[in-house]
């Protein structure tokens, strides 16, 4: 499917719609009454201090656990009670703040697993042959994310920056339509950061995403809209410019509240 | 939370640990050749009471190893699944208990038995994978115990305490497979096939995904894998191996009784798999070999150690504890440690590099 | 509880109905139709009481197991060995001063001392295990569990070596040996006299003791500082160790207490069943099932699970003799299928 066609097919339905979503841990409200809409292809940044509920928000959207109340729609379909893997098969992807990779596997095997997860060959007990479609897909992806030279390297030998790069590569396997990036720039060097910005901005147009990012500079450069969270609630929404200049936001986030 | 979380995918690739590919192939050929020509040197007793038993129990331990080593699920139900296959072979085939045995010919009875064992194993999996990690041991142990008590008290299907006897291996293509040497070759063939199958599947997309789930189930779900279904499918596959082992078990003893599926034997199979090492399929057979050889010669071993001859369980228990304390992965782990040490040794001076002060 | 009623009106109704039928069956005289179907009321009442008292034994054994599991995530498969050890130690204490013909002066004292001795012996053994073994492999659940299996193999063989394969029964003190008449009618004679149920006093006493121990444990966990710390540890170990509490002390304390309870259960088991090799495995399995059914790591769960399994075993053996073990298993499988965490979940 071409980019334009997929954009058209998504027209009218939002990529993601959260309605009144809350998540409690015991008596603690990690998220309360989150209502959020992201259009197809839209790139959104979610900002907020530690404990604002950003990662919990991602966990709820991915399906790591169910929201206590509220609903989640993905491309128009109600996925509130779907298990994680069903949401992934509908084009949702996510990366993790702390890399969750398979350290004992080579870079290629990691990518191969990611490709297998969203294909039909998951349960195959036959080893892949040379002309296997999955292998071909993994070969393509490894080139796309500039990791081809580390093809056979074990992942726990990779540098931190390369691991973050692989983390993103896993989210690009198959045909992603909507990606959740959880602090992809954390711990990266300035050069690696600008590489990351290039990767994000050069993603195909039909792929929308939400990015959690502490680095305002990165966040505002790769996003078209911004949602501010505070204490498990949505605090402000707007264009990057507006958020950056908002006095309340500055007080809360850019000022003493940060760190 | 994988139970066996400190292992990685490549524990089964010995060539990454300094053993070159040709020497590994050489070891395979050597071991294979010895096993094939073994009947020429050994007597009936060694062949039937030791080597064939090692192969049969090794297959059941292999089934446990597959789930624990690749899937991170330490299932104590594998002997019970083998027991189901054994009982079903007796029930659908022929035996001395004519009120129970249906008397089907072996090539119908055996597949039925294995399929029932696989269904049973799948159900065990479906029940136990709903909880995480260490609960698996508790649940599967409870299931095994329930099956033992059922077999012990039920006379309609299991013939209670005395079990079902006279379950004989078939005569096929003019060979009586119950004779010592043909039965040995049957066991050897099926054990080798199981071993190769487990190794093969471990590197298939299914096996890789299973190992991914062991190391990081949450991440696998976020890659689109149905973690629960994958785990249950692993039980089904492991039940196939255990089921074939179970059929051989009933033929080997020509009988099946609750004693063969008691908790003590369930624990024995766990001990075999853990002592051998859960990191590679060969560990299951290695563990079974050590266990059964020790068991057979326990009297001599114990008297050499100055202990009373009947203290076999003490010997096994202490040996088991020593292995767990000293090795991360049974005898395989010890061997790996030893190789690493000798690899570090300077070939000329013979010193450990780390020791050079 | 009210929440449960709101969320599961159907199941609540079923539970209330079952309890109502039970209460009716306990107190009302049985019409002959029911007697034809289920046998005499005396058999029913006896199975009921045996089930409840067996549940008391299971509770004592399982509560220690679940307490240790809840706090330390340690599946102590040597728990059955502690039970058997406690039973044997209690037996030795109870006959310590016996003369040649087996008579003991002031036996009640020695019998009670058997409980104390078994508790202490197992508690000390448990402390040793936690301090010398499990502390070194914290966080490695599988290794800990495998070690407990190894210990149970060794312990079983050592006990077999010392005590042999005989059956031992701990004698009941004279004043408890007879039956107690309960105000429950089993039948009405043709003469109009009401026949009341008689039940062994010692079993009733042990039931009361188990309830008292359970309530005290619940109070200790919910009302004392140490109890709060233990519960905090169940909910969040990292937080507990970060708050500067010396978590190892709490671990050792809990392990000692849990092991001691197993010892007490051993003396109870030795008094109303018997002690022999193999009893360690069977009580371990009962504890496992109780904990799986009741909810792992929860004391009220252990109580509920013990009651259900005790009743199921006794009613099963009376009314469905060949399928009794399957009944227990069906209950366990049902719970696992519909509520994998068990009937009562702990705070987590």
What are the salient characteristics of this protein?
heterotrimer; A: 259 residues; alpha/beta; 2 domains; B: 357 residues; mainly alpha; 14 helices; 4 strands; globular
Please state how the strands of the largest beta sheet of chain B are arranged side by side: 1-4
CATH homologous superfamily classification of the largest domain in chain A = P-loop containing nucleotide triphosphate hydrolases
Could you say which structural class the secondary elements and strand pairing of chain B correspond to? mainly alpha
Average pLDDT of chain B, rounded to a whole number, is 86
How many helices of chain B does DSSP assign?
Answer: 14
Overall structural domain count of chain B: 1
In short:
With 357 residues, chain B is an all-alpha fold. Helix content of chain B is 66%, strand content 2%. Chain B has one domain (9-260).
Write the layout of secondary structure elements.
The complex is a heterotrimer of chains A (259), B (357) and C (348).
Chain A: H1 3-9, E1 16-25, E2 28-38, E3 43-47, H2 54-62, E4 69-74, E5 77-78, H3 84-88, E6 92-94, H4 107-117, H5 133-144, H6 160-171, E7 178-182, H7 190-201, E8 208-212, H8 216-221, E9 225-230, E10 233-238, H9 240-245, H10 247-254
Parallel strand pairs in A: 3-8, 3-9, 6-7, 7-8
Antiparallel strand pairs in A: 1-2, 1-4, 4-5, 9-10
Chain B: H1 21-37, H2 44-71, H3 78-92, H4 106-128, H5 135-153, E1 164-165, E2 171-172, E3 175-176, H6 180-202, H7 205-215, H8 217-222, H9 227-253, E4 255-256, H10 263-276, H11 282-296, H12 298-304, H13 312-326, H14 330-344
Antiparallel strand pairs in B: 1-4, 2-3
Chain C: H1 2-7, H2 9-27, H3 32-38, H4 41-72, H5 79-94, H6 107-133, H7 141-163, H8 174-177, E1 179-188, E2 194-200, H9 201-223, H10 225-235, H11 237-242, H12 247-272, H13 279-294, H14 299-319, H15 324-338
Antiparallel strand pairs in C: 1-2
């Amino acid at each position: 499917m071409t980019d334009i066609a997929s954009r058209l097919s998504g027209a009218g339905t939002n990529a993601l719609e959260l309605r009144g979503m809350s998540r409690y841990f015991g008596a603690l409200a990690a998220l309360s009454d989150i209502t959020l809409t992201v259009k197809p292809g839209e790139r959104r940044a979610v900002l907020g201090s530690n404990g604002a509920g950003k990662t919990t928000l991602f966990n709820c959207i991915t399906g790591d656990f169910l929201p206590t109340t509220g609903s989640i729609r993905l491309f128009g379909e109600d996925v509130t009670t779907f298990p994680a893997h069903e949401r992934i098969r509908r084009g949702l992807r996510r990366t993790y703040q702390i890399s969750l990779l398979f350290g004992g596997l080579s870079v290629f095997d990691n990518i191969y697993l990611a490709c297998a997860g969203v294909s039909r060959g998951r349960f195959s007990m036959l080893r892949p042959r040379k002309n296997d479609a999955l292998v071909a897909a993994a070969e393509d992806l490894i080139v796309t994310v500039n990791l081809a030279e580390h093809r056979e390297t074990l992942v726990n030998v990779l540098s931190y920056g390369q691991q973050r790069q692989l983390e993103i590569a896993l989210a690009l396997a198959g045909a992603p339509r909507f990606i959740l990036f959880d602090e992809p720039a954390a711990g990266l060097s300035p050069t690696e950061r600008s590489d990351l910005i290039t990767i994000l901005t050069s993603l195909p147009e039909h792929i929308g995403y939400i990015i959690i990012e502490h680095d305002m500079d990165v966040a505002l450069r790769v996003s078209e809209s911004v949602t501010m969270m505070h204490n498990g609630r949505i605090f402000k929404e707007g264009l990057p410019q507006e958020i950056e200049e908002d006095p309340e936001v500055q007080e809360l986030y850019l000022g003493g509240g940060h760190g | 939370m994988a139970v066996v979380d400190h292992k990685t995918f490549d524990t089964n690739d010995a060539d990454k640990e300094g053993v070159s590919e040709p020497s590994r192939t050489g070891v395979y050929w050597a071991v294979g050749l010895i096993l094939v020509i073994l009947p020429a040197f050994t007597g009936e007793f060694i062949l039937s009471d030791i080597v064939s038993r090692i192969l049969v129990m090794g297959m059941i331990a292999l089934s446990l190893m597959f789930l624990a080593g690749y899937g991170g699920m330490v299932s104590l139900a594998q002997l019970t699944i083998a027991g189901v296959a054994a009982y079903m072979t007796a029930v659908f085939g022929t035996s001395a208990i004519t009120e129970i045995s249906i008397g089907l010919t072996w090539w119908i009875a055996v597949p039925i038995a294995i399929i029932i064992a696989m269904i049973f194993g799948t159900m065990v999996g479906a029940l136990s994978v709903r909880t995480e990690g260490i609960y698996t041991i508790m649940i599967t142990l409870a299931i095994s115990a329930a099956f033992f008590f059922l077999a012990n008290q039920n006379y309609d299907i299991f013939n209670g305490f005395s079990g079902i006897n006279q379950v004989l291996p078939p005569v096929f293509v003019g060979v009586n497979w119950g004779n010592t040497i043909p039965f040995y070759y049957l066991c050897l063939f099926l054990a080798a096939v199981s071993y190769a199958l487990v190794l093969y599947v471990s590197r298939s997309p299914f096996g890789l995904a299973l190992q991914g789930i062991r190391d990081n189930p949450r991440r696998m779900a976020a890659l689109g894998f149905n973690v629960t279904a994958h785990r249950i499918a692993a039980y089904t596959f492991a039940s196939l191996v255990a089921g074939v082992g179970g059929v051989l078990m009933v033929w080997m003893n020509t009988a099946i009784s609750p004693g063969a599926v008691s908790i003590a034997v369930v624990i024995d199979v766990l001990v075999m798999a853990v002592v051998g090492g859960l990191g590679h399929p060969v560990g299951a057979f290695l563990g079974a070999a050590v266990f059964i050889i020790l068991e057979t010669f326990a009297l001599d071993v114990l008297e050499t150690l100055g202990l009373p001859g009947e203290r076999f369980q003490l010997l096994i228990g202490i040996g088991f504890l020593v292995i767990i304390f000293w090795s991360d992965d049974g005898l395989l782990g010890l061997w790996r440690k030893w190789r690493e040490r000798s690899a570090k040794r300077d070939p000329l001076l013979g010193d450990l590099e780390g020791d050079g002060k | 509880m009210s929440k449960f009623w709101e969320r599961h009106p159907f199941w609540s109704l079923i539970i209330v109905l079952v309890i109502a039928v039970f209460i009716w069956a306990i107190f009302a005289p049985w019409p002959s139709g029911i007697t034809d179907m289920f046998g005499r009321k005396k058999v029913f009442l006896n199975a009921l009481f045996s089930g409840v008292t067996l549940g008391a034994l299971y509770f004592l054994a399982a509560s220690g197991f679940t307490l240790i599991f809840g706090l330390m995530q340690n599946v102590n498969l040597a728990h059955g060995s502690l039970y058997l050890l406690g039973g044997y130690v209690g037996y030795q204490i109870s006959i310590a001063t016996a003369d040649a013909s087996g008579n003991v002066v002031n036996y009640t004292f020695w019998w009670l001392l058997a409980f104390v001795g078994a508790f202490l012996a197992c508690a000390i053994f448990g402390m040793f295990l936690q301090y010398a073994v499990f502390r070194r492999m914290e966080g490695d659940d599988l290794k800990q569990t495998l070690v407990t299996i190894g210990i149970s193999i060794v312990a079983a063989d050592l006990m077999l070596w010392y005590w042999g394969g005989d059956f031992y029964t701990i004698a009941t003190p004279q004043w408890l040996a007879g039956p107690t008449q309960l105000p429950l009618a089993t039948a009405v004679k043709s003469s109009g006299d009401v026949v009341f149920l008689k039940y062994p006093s010692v079993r009733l006493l042990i039931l009361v003791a188990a309830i008292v121990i359970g309530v005290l444990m619940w109070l200790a966990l919910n009302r004392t500082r140490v109890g709060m710390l233990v519960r905090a540890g169940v909910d969040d170990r990292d937080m507990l160790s970060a708050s500067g509490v010396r978590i190892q002390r709490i671990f050792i304390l809990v392990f000692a207490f849990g092991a001691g309870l197993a010892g007490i259960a051993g003396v109870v088991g030795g008094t109303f069943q018997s002690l022999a090799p193999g009893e360690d495995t069977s009580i371990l399995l009962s504890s496992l099932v109780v904990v799986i059914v009741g909810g792992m790591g929860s004391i009220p769960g252990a109580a509920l699970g013990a009651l259900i399994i005790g009743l199921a075993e006794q009613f099963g053996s009376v009314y469905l003799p060949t399928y009794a073990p399957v009944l227990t298993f069906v209950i366990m499988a049902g719970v696992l299928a519909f509520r994998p965490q068990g009937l009562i979940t702990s705070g987590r």
